[in-house]
Amino acid sequence: MFDDFFIRALIAGIGIALVTGPLGCFIIWRRLAFFGDTLAHSALLGVTLAFTFEISIALSVFIISSIIALILLKLQKNTKLPGDALLGLLAHSSLAVGLVVIGFLSFIRFDIMGFLFGDILAVSTSDLITIWVGGALILFVLNKIWKPLFASTVNYDLAEAEGMSPEKANAIFTVLLAAIIAISIKMVGLLLITGMFIMPAAMARNLSNNPRQMVIISIIGGLLSVLIGLFSSLEFNTASGPSIITAALFLFILSLIKFKKNSELKH
Amino acid sequence: MENLKKNILVKLEKVGVIQNNKWLVKDVSLQIEKGKIVTLIGPNGSGKTTTAKIALGIHKNIKGYVTKFTDKIGYVPQKISIDWTLPIRVTDFMQLTHNLENSEIENALSLTGVKHLIKNDLRNLSGGEFQRVLIARAISKKPDLLVLDEPVQGVDFKGEIALYELIKTISEKLNCGILLISHDLHVVMTATDYVVCLNGHVCCSGSPTAVANNQEYQKLFGDRASTILSVYEHRHDHTHSPDGTVKNK
Q1: Which of A38, A148, B35, B62 has the fewest CB atoms within 10 Å, counting from its CB?
Q2: Which residues on B lie below 8 Å from A158 (Cβ)?
Q3: pTM of whole model > 0.90?
Q4: Which CATH class is domain B1-72+183-243?
């Protein structure tokens, strides 16, 4: 009924949504939206390096994004520049350097739009394995650090005082973010991946009253966005990434209506 | 000697923190023992919260030595703000650092008189209710050491007395050590075993009566100090049952 590439895209999208759901909740709880964006921008540098050294894109992006993330954590402690300026600095310098490097790689045909906005045609069977195995690993680790990570999200001092080692949990979480960006970049694109994190989670916030519920609704929202987005991308011949994010936007707007009704009831 | 060591939960030796070339607090030595309540008093900015954070291991770059003999710690921080983006009910918050049975959550909340709020959104609580939840959470795990930073701020006067009574009962029942930060000299002087008066350093310390009679202390707190002393030296003619109600003998 559907072409193979479309089935692959569906399987890939479902795998990604399962992971971005819970991670997205932490991103908006911890106000890390711009941080995620910075990591995603640095992914382009990772992509170009993958082409230069002929290694796997996911691996290369993972390494570069992790390095950028750790540099960020260090700089945030050691410089006087405010956090958002620091993020902008790293985001745009890594994006620019990535684009400059592409200029030198004239020997390969390089579909840059695919990496900026995602391309379902680009998803291969080996990408599916990367997404599902990588995604399962990310969820496994997230589940392991859930308690200390959540405690330090609510109050860092309290988590530290009661022996939860929040610093370790935070560092691991940062690496998990780099990992999900690495495995989803082909699908969603680096300019839109942050949307995949925050929009289902923002929608879920409007519909939930406890953290677990918010995570579950966020996952469902992500899955729906992927399904609606991909089918409409097939129907209208639009790019996959923007279609998924547009679908997420519609779901968010719908959740606002529900949210408004709820708040009116309370007053 | 061995026995003495066993009763010590945390020991601070000449600890201090420097931030931006300024000592936040300097040369503080104190120890907290099982079943005892140690109270930190002092004006704003005198280093009370900093000292508590040193004892808890939150401040990492410190001078001096901290030795901890327990990991079972309950902490009530001075301030917690919950972001709107995070939906969290009282029952979720109770299990923030450890898993609890439903009955344990309910017991802890009823001790501080807020069991009815268990399903409420944490952000919709009043200041006083929030403090009661914070205290309930800290004691729910039956810790060896409780660190309470202004635990009754925002609680009405009647509730304040009941909560201090509760803190005293807990220290006796659980045989845990308590490090208390309080503005309320009144309570400090009646419910405490050992008082440390801070003003960037240890101004004076000792039993409540000794501190109350100390000149440094009287200089620091002025008129309030002398009126408190008279309050302190009254006689107890009753005892309390675990829930804080008065039993006349």
Answers
A1: B35
A2: 75, 77, 80, 96-97
A3: no
A4: alpha beta
